[in-house]
Amino acid sequence: FRRARTYLAKIAIVLQDAPGQMLMFRQLMTKIVLLTSEDQKCVKNNIRVCLSTNKCFVKVPVIAESNHSKRNYWKLDCGQITAKMVRRHFRGLLQLFPELAPKVGTKGASSKPPDQHPARQSPDPAACKAAQVRCQVKFSGPFSIESLLRRDSPSGASPRPGVQIIRAEQQQ
């Protein structure tokens, strides 16, 4: 459990060891709080967010006919765990989740080895010039920095004359 650094991994480990690989939220909370030294309120919030945002955690109603029950079991669906999730959350834990091992090598990579990719070419100089012109035109509106800086303003006078008087009195 110490190797699990993310809440997703911690929850997955606890669910993996549970009877039927399912637990209610309260049971899950109790087990994780016992294994961590963090604040219980913080842990509860993190678990709730993790369960609701990751598709790999599935709600299973306690009563099969009731879809809107507040009492649900949570179960880990390994089919919803992507290769990216395996790399981020289950690194070093694959001995506990052997069904995730095939996903480690799949990265969505191309068929070519990394050293056979063609070298990148520099962009067309005409395209760069067009992009520069667009940027110059883009910032020429009435509220652009350039137009605000170009406005005539009295160079020596302060926008609030009282400020200069107070400063002069403080110096004496």
Automatic annotation (TrEMBL):
Residues 2-77 bind DNA. This is Si:ch211-239d6.2. Keywords: DNA-binding, Nucleus. It is found in: Nucleus. It comes from the Eukaryota. The lineage of its organism: Eukaryota, Metazoa, Chordata, Craniata, Vertebrata. Residues 104-129, 148-172 are annotated as: Disordered. It comes from Kryptolebias marmoratus. Residues 2-77 form the Fork-head domain. Its main location: nucleus.
